[in-house]
Specification:
InterPro entries: DAPIN, DEATH-like_dom_sf, DED_dom, DM9_repeat, LRAT_dom. The chain is of the alpha+beta class. It has 16 helices and 32 strands. Helix 5 (65-72) packs parallel to helix 9. The termini are far apart.
């Protein structure tokens, strides 16, 4: 069977066209570029049958008829036929020898107008050429222009509402001596001009159409730097302004006015004098790629919308203080560590690599009572909207280390992130046009280290190592233990934030210190789930309660301990009464003792909970209770004139008689 000829293929395809589609196909054939061969319109109108039309095609474009048909079919709305034609051309053809063996009858059936170049032996090249054109047509657009409006947010298509918005993009139409504004109807770009009424004029299917429902292109505040760049035969400059979501139709112009440049058709189409006209050279509207510097200023923060998050605690460093002597010693250690504060101003716009951004802002700083606005200039990291500051901290510690002991310190830190919205003025400086400004909205994100703390990491399995004097300290009776130590260095936080910080970091048995402005501290023991066990108010009558309230106004201590009767209670930390200006912290480092096992601490807690005891400032106070639970010895370091870190045997005895009643009775009998 003979291979199909180009004429056979074209007849088969074009016979599928409806009457109106065939009419439009002929019109587009007649509107070919004047510089190219063209079928006279009279001959096209005289070709009433498909075979006559195909003969005209083959005679006028002997080597290009298939490619031309592939190009025109989508323009009359028959992409399905274009795909079908491509599929036919893609099918394997007979080899050359079989074609050479075609019968004389078959050869006679080939139209006489078909040149030798189009005979079967040479049709492979024609098929490949046409198929290449088809593949180029159906190939997805490799360029993605969808980013342009998200990257350049001041450039917008806005619906026509009866009047022109400020900064609508326009040109001066030299041919018509008027100003035309960029407009579009669906995916067809055209123009609006006041002198012709409230219409967008646009090209479509060989006609100049108009519509009262359209959109205009607005460059809000004139902020984006736009430029018209030359193109021809379907070329698309970088940063071209698209009309459709596919990114293959663009805003373009020439000296006759505004229209659409269709990349697949390789031409500019204009609405002019009632017709759709096309041109192969044009200018495309683009966003300029001229370098610039930018500045963010006049920031206003909505601090009522602040959100706060805290990252997991990280181990930053470790340090060891060792005492190999057989007596307690006090050692000094200077700790140096950095912290980083990072700032991000997210304005939801991409930043070009190498872009220099300066930010002048009064940033919120939080103290105990107020929000302070601190003005400062920031130079962002190149190509970003972020900056960072490094703060170096130095902490001098004086720690008493028990005999044959070591203190293993672990530096822990947890970053906190604050985030809240802002409005600001964004300005860009171009060398060609100077400064352009616009209002922007964004979110300010600040990440910082709210505090560090050193916590003990006990290691009771080891004993003191030999020293240089050759004496083996492992023979000493005292084990080589880990003394408890913790210290907090924190950015100023209000009391509520301090409570959250403590409850998120404390572990069972930690000593909780409520430090009052007068220099006195109230103490308790952390009992998980945000609770503390401490000396609190015992049950009392109305008269005593009124007296306590009065004394609190005169002498603003904890208030729970003024009248002597106390009860050991379990209470949420946030509900503990404290005077204004108090601070709360985890403090395990002030008593030079090794913490007991968790089992022993829980046993003491269970026995003492809900016990009513007389409060005695010098011999039975809140610090005595807290240290007894943690260490098994009652210690208080805030009594004037008393030595530090010494056990109060009276307080220890009171607690021991409750916790270990049988043991204390046996001791008394002995």
């Amino acid at each position: 069977m003979a291979a199909p000829t180009p004429m056979d293929i074209l007849v088969e395809i074009l016979e599928e066209l409806e009457a109106e589609e065939l009419k439009r196909f002929k019109l587009k054939l007649g509107d070919r570029d004047p510089r190219e061969p063209r079928i006279p319109r009279g001959k096209l109108e005289g070709a009433t049958g498909i075979s006559d039309l195909v003969k005209l095609l083959m005679n006028t474009y002997p080597n290009d008829a298939l490619r031309l048909t592939l190009d025109l079919l989508p323009r009359v709305g028959r992409r399905d036929l274009a795909k079908r034609l491509g599929d036919i051309l893609e099918q394997p053809q007979n080899n050359q020898s079989s074609r050479a063996g075609s019968t004389a009858t078959e050869t006679k059936e080939t139209p006489a107008s078909l040149s030798t170049a189009t005979q079967l032996p040479d049709m492979i090249q024609m098929f490949q050429t046409a198929l290449g054109a088809y593949r180029h047509f159906v190939k997805p657009n490799a360029k993605d222009y969808s980013y342009l409006f998200s990257a350049h947010r001041n450039l917008k298509w806005l619906p026509w509402e009866g009047s022109l918005p400020d900064h609508t993009v326009s040109i001066y139409n030299q041919d018509a001596s008027r100003t035309d504004y960029v407009a579009k109807v669906n995916t067809c770009a055209g123009y609006y001009t006041p002198s012709k009424g409230p219409y967008c004029f646009y090209p479509l299917s060989d006609r100049e159409e108009r519509s009262q429902t359209f959109e205009v292109l607005v460059n809000v505040d004139g902020f984006e730097l736009l430029e018209w760049r030359s193109g021809s035969w379907g070329s698309v400059p970088e940063n071209a302004v698209p009309v459709n979501s596919n990114g293959d139709v663009f805003v373009a112009r020439n000296r006759y006015g505004l229209g659409k440049m269709v990349e697949t058709h390789k031409a500019l189409f204009l609405p002019k004098d009632g017709k759709e006209t096309f041109y192969k050279t044009y200018e495309v509207l683009t966003v300029s790629q001229e370098p610039y510097t930018q500045r963010l200023k006049d920031l206003e923060f909505d601090i009522d919308q602040v959100s706060k998050s805290r990252q997991a605690t990280e181990i930053l460093d470790r340090s060891v203080i060792t005492n190999s002597d057989d007596k307690a010693v006090t050692k000094k250690k200077v700790l140096k560590f950095p912290s980083v504060v990072s700032h991000v101003w997210d304005i939801n716009r991409p930043v070009s690599p190498g872009l220099s951004t300066k930010i002048t802002a009064s940033l919120p700083q939080f103290d105990d009572e107020n929000v302070l606005m601190v003005s400062k200039d920031y130079q962002c990291h190149e190509g970003t909207m972020s900056a960072s500051e490094t703060k170096n901290h130095e902490l001098s510690l004086e720690q008493e280390v028990p005999a044959c002991s070591k203190v293993v310190l672990t530096l822990e830190g947890a970053k906190t992130t604050l985030e809240f919205p802002f409005t600001a003025k964004l300005s860009r400086t171009f060398q060609s046009v100077g400064i352009r400004e616009t209002q922007v909205q964004g979110r300010y994100i600040r990440t910082f280290d709210p505090g560090f703390r050193f916590v003990d990491r006990p290691d009771l399995s080891k004993q003191a190592p030999p020293t240089d004097d050759g004496q083996d300290y492992s023979l000493h009776k005292k084990p080589f233990s880990s003394a408890s130590f913790s210290v907090t260095v924190r950015e100023t936080m209000d009391y509520e934030e301090q409570v959250k910080d403590v409850t998120s970091n404390a572990q069972f048995g930690d000593l909780i210190e409520f430090s009052y402005p007068i220099g006195y501290s109230h103490w308790g023991v952390y009992d998980e789930d945000g609770h503390v066990i401490h000396f609190a108010v015992a049950d009392e009558g109305r008269l005593k309660s009124m007296l306590r309230s009065y004394l609190q106004t005169v002498f603003p201590l904890c208030g729970d301990l003024l009248l002597g009767e106390t009860q050991i209670r379990r209470q949420p930390i946030a509900e503990v009464n404290v005077p204004e200006g108090a601070h709360i912290m985890i403090t395990n480092n002030r008593h030079a003792r090794t913490p007991s096992s968790e089992k022993d601490m829980r046993r003491r807690r269970d026995a003492l909970l809900d016990q009513e005891l007389p409060y005695k400032l010098f011999s039975l106070n809140c610090e005595h209770f807290a240290t007894y639970v943690r260490f098994g010895e009652a210690v208080c370091n805030q009594i004037p004139g008393r030595s530090k870190n010494q056990e109060c045997e009276e307080a220890t005895g009171v607690f021991e008689r409750i916790v270990n009643p049988e043991s204390t009775e046996n001791d008394e009998e002995a």
